[in-house]
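Record now logged for everyone:
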Amino acid sequence: RKGACMNGHALEARIYAEEYNAALQRFTANGGQLHHVRFPSSACDAEDGVRVECGVVEGDQVTTHYDAMIAKVITHVPHTYDEDAVEND
């Protein structure tokens, strides 16, 4: 994209309601009630570099009729510059 520049590093973790199905040798969607759901309290604060995108809360029912992804956790840290790590000729 024109004008875009690199600005640090990001990591995205996708959280799915799945279990391993040994008969199929792969993960498959698994529905049920979410008994314990906790995300960082500052997940909506862009200043700390953590963002959570989710559409569920504790107590919700997850069905197998939709995508099994229940949340994404995205983190970002800016580049840091360490003068001691740069060799000066």
Observations:
- The mean pLDDT is 81.
